[in-house]
From TrEMBL:
Its cofactor is FAD. This is Acyl-[acyl-carrier-protein] dehydrogenase MbtN. Residues 231-379 form the Acyl-CoA dehydrogenase/oxidase C-terminal domain. Gene3D superfamilies: Acyl-CoA dehydrogenase/oxidase, N-terminal domain (1.10.540.10), Butyryl-CoA Dehydrogenase, subunit A, domain 2 (2.40.110.10), Butyryl-CoA Dehydrogenase, subunit A, domain 3 (1.20.140.10). Residues 122-218 form the Acyl-CoA oxidase/dehydrogenase middle domain. Pathway: Siderophore biosynthesis; mycobactin biosynthesis. It holds the Pfam family Acyl-CoA_dh_N. Belongs to the acyl-CoA dehydrogenase family. It comes from the Bacteria. InterPro entries: Acyl-CoA_dehydrogenase, Acyl-CoA_DH_CS, Acyl-CoA_Oxase/DH_mid-dom, Acyl-CoA_Oxase/DH_mid-dom_sf, AcylCo_DH-like_C, AcylCo_DH/oxidase_C, AcylCoA_DH/ox_N, AcylCoA_DH/ox_N_sf.
Length: 382
């Protein structure tokens, strides 16, 4: 069943993106996984195709695309591999902060390059000592004339190594009570004195996604780089984190559908006891159950996306979709790997990579426990 928000024009983009990815991404993806990076040239080509921030206004290099296009782009990238999530993060998570809360001057300066692929962005919330507890971050940005002096450390930052521009979540008022009222968003550009990129982190999965530590030691950042108002960063995050979680849920469903597709194909071809693996009742029941759950997840997700496009309050539903779908993705990965037998454990089989990549979706963008906390709060359970 096709989602109501997917129209002919979305399918046209899907088709041209698919053809592009068949030529420019699928043949190279294993190489990128080994290199631990998506090359900049690929970002540029995505920009040329109109698939970087297409939702931006024409004056900034977009075509005013609705969120349906973002869904299509994220789905098609996910089919290649979850390691491409850094592009979705740039398109639908970081750049929206610049567009929604930036000044006219900031937008003119950064947005066209975000759409062309000349600027790669990252968002730095997490610190070694604070992940789920976002208000507990320690990175400070204290005013000194026309600059902020930034000190602190961030970790697990997607696109961290390649980023030209990092949206840093910091405390402009470290003594604020409650703590979240001291949080602000500051753009730190590469080559800023006192800003260094630490090591590229060695992960068990998402090998092609660049994930890094960022260090700020008396980094001098112009006050002109403040996004929105001082002390309002936490409110911007609470609003925009909904789309971030939606992007993770969309990736989870697309990954699950892909795993079911390759596994269904595999069990039809593989034989044991003179029959195909697909002919065993256990295989049929397992895959039928997973197909049902993925379809249920897809239907719910489409409803939430539709409400998000209409601008409705979807905090509770997004939290539900994020935890339920990413838990399902982990289950699909484990069951599908098992149905591949020993081959599923071999690196050259796609299902092995998917099995490594799936679990993090339940951790980032707010762990699944945090999602349940939000739902419970919305239910009046405090
Ligand atoms: C590959 C990868 C990419 C990432 N990309 C980014 C990025 O681009 N930018 C960024 O800022 N961050 C990023 N992160 C960080 C990610 O968002 C955090 O890891 C996540 O929010 C969890 O924080 P933590 O790791 O500090 O875990 P912790 O907060 O220490 O949590 C540890 C465990 O305790 C549980 N827990 C915590 N609090 C509660 C509670 N109140 N009740 C019940 N259980 C609880 C958690 O669910 C988790 O299971 C990335 C992480 C990874 C692994």
């Amino acid at each position: 069943m096709k989602a109501a928000y997917i129209k002919e024009e979305h399918e046209i983009l899907r088709e041209s993106l698919r053809k592009f990815l068949e030529k420019e991404a699928y043949p190279y993806f294993n190489e990128w996984e080994q290199d631990g990076l998506i090359p900049r040239s690929f970002w540029k080509k995505m920009g040329d195709l109109g698939c970087l921030c297409p939702w931006l206004d024409e004056e900034y290099g977009g075509f005013g695309a609705d969120f349906g296009y973002s869904v299509v782009i994220n789905e098609e990238l996910e089919k290649v591999g979850t390691g491409l999530i850094g592009i979705g993060l740039h398109n639908d998570i970081v750049v929206p902060y610049l567009e929604q809360y930036g000044t006219a001057e900031q937008k003119k300066r950064w947005l066209p390059k975000c759409a062309s692929g000349e600027i790669i962005t990252a968002i730095a919330m997490t610190e070694p000592g604070a992940g789920s507890d976002l208000a507990g971050i320690k990175t400070s940005a204290l005013r000194d004339g026309k600059d902020y002096i930034v000190n602190g450390e961030k970790t697990f930052i997607t696109n961290g190594i390649q980023a030209d521009l990092v949206l840093v979540v910091c405390k402009t008022d470290p003594k604020a009570d409650p703590a979240h009222k001291g949080v602000s968003l500051l753009v730190v550009e590469k080559n800023t004195l006192g800003f260094t990129k630490g090591k590229k982190l060695n992960k068990i999965g998402l090998h092609s996604q660049d994930t890094a530590e960022l260090i700020f030691e008396d980094a001098r950042v112009p006050t002109d780089n403040l996004i929105g108002k001082e002390g309002e960063g936490f409110y911007y995050l609470m609003k925009n984190l909904q789309q971030e979680r939606l992007i993770v849920a969309i990736g989870g469903i697309a990954a699950s559908e892909r795993m079911l597709k390759i596994t269904t194909q595999y069990v039809k071809e593989r034989k044991a006891f003179g029959k195909s693996i697909a002919s065993f009742q256990n295989t049929q029941f397992k895959l039928a159950e997973l197909e049902t759950e993925v379809e249920i997840g897809r239907t719910f997700l489409d409803r939430v996306v539709d409400s998000h496009i209409k601008g409705e309050d979807v905090v509770k539903e997004v939290s539900m979709a994020k935890w339920w779908i990413t838990d399902l993705t982990k289950k699909v990965a484990a069951e599908c790997m098992h149905l591949h037998g020993g081959y599923g454990y071999m690196e050259e089989y796609e299902i092995a990579r998917r099995y490594r990549d799936a679990p993090v979706s339940a951790i980032y963008a707010g762990s699944n426990e945090i999602m349940k906390q939000i739902i419970a709060k919305k239910m009046g359970l405090q």
